[in-house]
Structures are given as C-alpha cells and as structure tokens.
Design brief:
This protein has about 400 residues and is α/β, with parallel strands linked by helices. It folds into two domains: about 5-280, 3-Layer(aba) Sandwich (Rossmann fold), CATH 3.40.50.12780; about 290-390, GMP Synthetase, Chain A, domain 3. It is about 25% helix and about 30% strand. A seven-stranded mixed sheet has the order 6-5-7-8-9-10-11, with helices on both faces. The longest helix has 15 residues, at about 75-90.
Length: about 400
C-alpha cells in the first residue's frame, strides 16, 4: 500500500480487543505494523518512527524491562504466526483463548495472534482493578462455554491467586491447557495445580522469540535450542525477532549469524540438558551474585528462604559493595507480618541450608515482591528498595564467617 507508514502506535485502553483488527491487518500485510503502548509511552517513540524496519514487520513490542531499559523488539508476521501455529500443534489444535495478560507485552499479544489463527475471538478478562480470582472465574466460564478446546496463559502470580480460590481452581481445571510463563514457576505451585487436575504447560521464551518457544522443556517444532560453551541458552528458528528497532548496537550484541546462515539469539539465561533431553533453565547469567570471590545462585537462596521460613514469596538480588564486590540482598513477604524474621534470626535459620557467603546481608520485609507490567520480578526495583534496609556489618572478617 503506497504511502502507508511502516509503524503505527496503538494506545492500550480499557478494551484490549481493540488491537485485534489492526493486528490482523498487520499480519496479512494490508495495514502497517503495530506497536501497542501504554498511553504515556506513545510520545517517547516519535524519534524512532523513521528507523529502518525489516520486510514483513508486523509488531514492535517492548521487552519486560525486568533487568534494565526495555528494548523495542521487531517481529515479522512469519515469526508470530509460526509461533502461534506451533503452539496449537503442541497443545492439541486451535481453540478459544482467554486473555488475562496485558497486550503491550508479547504474551498478551500472542493470545490475540493465536485467536486470529484459530478464527476465534478471545474473551478478555476485565483487569482494570487488578487480577482477581473472581473476575478470572467469570471470564473463564465465558471461554469454556464456546466450542473447541479452551486455553489461557498466565504468569505464576496469577496462577497462585487462582489456586487460592477453590471455585476458580475447579474452573481452571476445565481448560484443555494452561500456559504459565514470564517467570519461574515454583515447584510447589506447579504441584498444587497438578493436584487440582490443571494441565499446566510451563513455557520458556521472551519477546525476542515471539513469546514462549520451549514448552515443558521441549522446543516447539519451529524452534532450535543449543547451549553455548559458557552454558548460555541460545535460541534459533522461525520465531526469532529481526532485532531491536533503532538500536543496531544492542541488536548486534544479542543476535548472531553463524557461517551456515542461521541466526541465534543469545539469552541471558544459563541452562542444561536433563537426562531425558529436556531443557532446564537454571537462572539468569547476569543475576548470579559475585561476592568475595564466590558465586551465589539467587534461586538457591530463594528456595531455602521459602522452604525454611514459611514466607509467602522472596526475591534475591546482588547489591553493589565496595569491599565484597556484591552482597546478597533479600526482599521477603510474609502472609502474616507477625511472622517476619529479623535479619540475624533469618541468617541463623538459613545456616542449615546455605554456606556463609550465600547468607543474606541486607533484608527488607515487604507486602509484596515488586513486579514488572507482565508480572515478572522487578530486580531493579528490588535493589532500590533494599538500598535503605536492615543490614548486618558488611565487612565481617572472613576468619569469622566465610564470605
């Protein structure tokens, strides 16, 4: 279409399904690529509308920004539809979708793309007052009343809220499949879902892969996975993004073309192959905490905190320190604030599971763990909260305590 702008910002309003028709036209090439943005964000994008865009561009979507400034990810129609069709192939065929995620992020957009590919109209949950199990139950019933398989996609925080509501849990168990991703799903949460008869499919992916591309450790049919020499997870295949809009430097750093012509996205995650050939994601390479010459795995510390203290949730981050390089910081939320432990008592309890250098040195109790717009733990926000929190003497001599 001559004179058609290559990119159109669409403000996300109270009706997320307003994105359906522009997205449909972006996918079939009859309209410009779309970029769903929150109202206040649209003005900040004026400068990159003249950036060079790839052929077939259909969507520009921001990364979650859980560990830094969001990047504007460019996705073609082929990448988006390949992801949607492969998802339906793995799950058991096209069906009806319940939209419970924001459509300015890839996970929410993919619910719309899958619906378009299935020829169905998704049911959009009203989340104007936040995510509530009662609202989910109402929207889920409308989805389940239609023909064909019913699917939905949630983040772990949402799943936990549904599972705390017995009636909502029974409704969730009626879905043909429930995708959960965006953050690590705690084993106890997955176990509760399984015990309730929920077919949970744990997904791994990101904006740069058109959303989830590894389901329950198995790559989608259009996805390739390998591990770098440093243990980094590298992703390839048809669902890959074309880079970051107006940002050639970060594009070159993240996407590499190999001599055979294939392109691979270098994730920030470490992984390993299990004995049965599944990908196990071990955590973010850049979230590892380097303290006093030791490397601390934040997920190992978090698991110990949750297992030993009865806390509702926790987030472990590294904090800059002039003596140790970094120290272990811990945000922890309690179901009952009266159960909150002070730092010395918490450390004493954790000694049964953790080495001295793994013990938290900075602690703050919070009502809830800070999250990004998609429900991922906000590590940058957590570090800011911990900047003025309860600490131990940071320079404890090594002879008294390792690390």
């Amino acid at each position: 279409m001559t004179g058609m702008p290559p990119l159109r910002d669409l403000t996300v309003g109270p009706d997320p399904l307003a994105l359906l028709d522009p997205l449909r036209r972006a996918l079939d090439g009859s309209g410009p690529a779309v970029r769903p943005v929150l109202g206040a964000a649209a003005a900040s994008h004026d400068q990159d509308h003249d950036a060079v865009v790839p052929e077939g561009l259909a969507l520009v979507v921001a990364t979650s920004g859980s560990s830094g400034a969001p990047k504007q990810t460019m996705l073609t129609a082929d990448a988006l539809t390949a992801s949607a069709d492969a998802t339906h192939e793995v799950l058991g065929g096209p069906g009806r979708w319940l939209l419970a995620l924001p459509v300015d992020h890839i996970a929410g957009v993919q619910v719309l793309v899958r619906s378009l590919r299935a020829g169905t109209t998704p049911v959009a949950m009203d989340a104007t007052s936040g995510f509530r199990a009662s609202d989910f139950r109402h929207a889920a019933q409308a989805t389940l009343d239609g023909p064909g398989p019913a699917y939905t996609s949630l983040v772990p925080t949402q799943l936990g809220r549904v599972l705390r509501d017995p009636e909502a849990t029974r409704t969730l168990a009626r879905f043909h499949a429930v995708l959960v991703g965006g953050a690590r799903t705690p084993p106890e949460l997955a176990g509760s879902a399984a015990a309730a008869g929920v077919r949970l499919v744990r997904t791994y992916g990101m904006s740069e892969t058109s959303g989830g591309c590894v389901y329950d450790g198995r790559p989608l049919p259009v996805t390739q996975v390998r591990l770098g020499e440093d243990g980094r997870v590298l992703l390839g295949g048809r669902t890959l993004a074309s880079g970051y809009l107006g940002d050639p430097e970060r594009t070159a750093a993240a996407f590499a073309t190999h001599p055979d012509g294939s392109t691979w996205f270098r994730t920030d995650d470490l992984g390993r192959w299990t004995d049965d050939g599944r990908l196990e994601v071990l955590g973010r390479a850049d979230s590892a905490i380097l303290t006093g010459g030791h490397t601390v795995d934040p997920e190992r510390v978090r698991a110990a905190v949750l297992d030993l203290t009865g806390a509702a949730d926790a987030l472990v981050v590294g904090l800059e320190d002039p003596e140790w390089g970094q120290v272990v910081g811990l945000l922890v939320s309690w179901t009952d604030p009266a159960d909150a432990l002070r730092l010395p008592a918490l450390r004493d309890l954790l000694r049964a599971r953790l080495a001295g250098h793994e013990l938290p040195r900075v602690l703050r109790a919070v009502a809830g763990i800070p999250l990004t717009g998609l429900g991922k733990p906000d590590r940058t926000g957590a570090a800011a909260l911990l900047a003025d929190s309860e600490t131990i003497e940071r320079y404890t001599p090594v002879r008294h305590e390792e690390g």
